[in-house]
Amino acid sequence: MSAGETLAVLGGGAEAQPSGARIRRAAVGLLVPLAALVIWAASAQYGWLPIQILPEPLVVWDSLVQLWSSGELLDHARVSLLRVVYGFSAGAAAGLALGLAMGLSETVEDYVRPLFTALAQVPTLASIPLLMLPLGIDEALKVVIIAKAAFVPMTLNAFAGVRGVPAQLVEVAQAFRFTRLQLLRRVILPGAVAPIFTGVRYGLTKSWTALVAVELLASSEGLGYLLVWGRQMFWLDVVIVAMIAIGVVGFLMDKTLALAETRLQRWRVTAV
Questions:
Q1: pTM
Q2: Do residues 31 and 82 both lie within one domain?
Q3: Rounded-to-integer distance, Cα 103 and Cα 91, Å
Q4: Domain containing 14: what range?
Q5: Residues 184 and 231 in one domain
Q6: Do residues 99 and 157 touch, judged by C-beta distance below 8 A?
Q7: Under a CB-based contact definition with an 8 Å cutoff, are residues 265 and 14 in contact?
Q8: Over the stretch 103-162, which tens digit does the pLDDT of each residue have?
Q9: What's the Cα-to-Cα distance from 96 to each of 46, 124, 137, 167, 265, rounded to whole Å?
Q10: How many independent structural domains does the chain possess?
Q11: Residue 50: which residues within 8 A CB-CB, separation 6 or more?
């Protein structure tokens, strides 16, 4: 079997699994959530924790149905998703450009890398008090915080992807007298696709968590606001509904990117 065939077999292993195996894996993944739900129901049934701390599952379900039926939950989710789209797009684009620039030019890396490394060590939420002064607490603050959360992982992964391209490929391209643009389009970017996509996936995750955090501090709408509003009103059922919505949306976004990455890896294997 050739190397390409071997890679194709490895790459298609997940798809080649029988449906029974996929069902078993899905069932195993549900064991822990179901166990947590059983413990939660038992705690409410036997009074292990006061209902003011942990409401009954049926109460949370009723609140979820009510917020969904009224459209309030969807409205908050839509606001949060739009903020992530704007902030992540800006941060990922800037991070990709900087990562490529540092990866392609050692001079750019020498000038930029020290400052970037220092800024990367500062937690995203630690920037909020400073950014509040020029930006206030409106949408601009949220977009900038989300963009910063996506910027760092995107830059690091783009840089690593460019530097990880085999030198032999670059030498062959130079032997064929590729221009800088041809080298970038036909060698560098295709070779760095996997690390860059990892940066996209990780950056989106960081953007989502940063969004929820900034909405907790300064917002009048969004899932983070719904969470803090429920806490202020001592409606723990609303708090749990908001937590579930945040987790589900984050899971769906990550799952979507994982499926896209799987298709991308299949394309790269086929190309081999």
A1: 0.77
A2: no
A3: 18
A4: 1-52
A5: yes
A6: yes
A7: no
A8: 888 899 889 988 998 888 888 878 888 888 888 878 888 899 999 999 999 999 999 988
A9: 54, 18, 27, 21, 20
A10: 2
A11: none
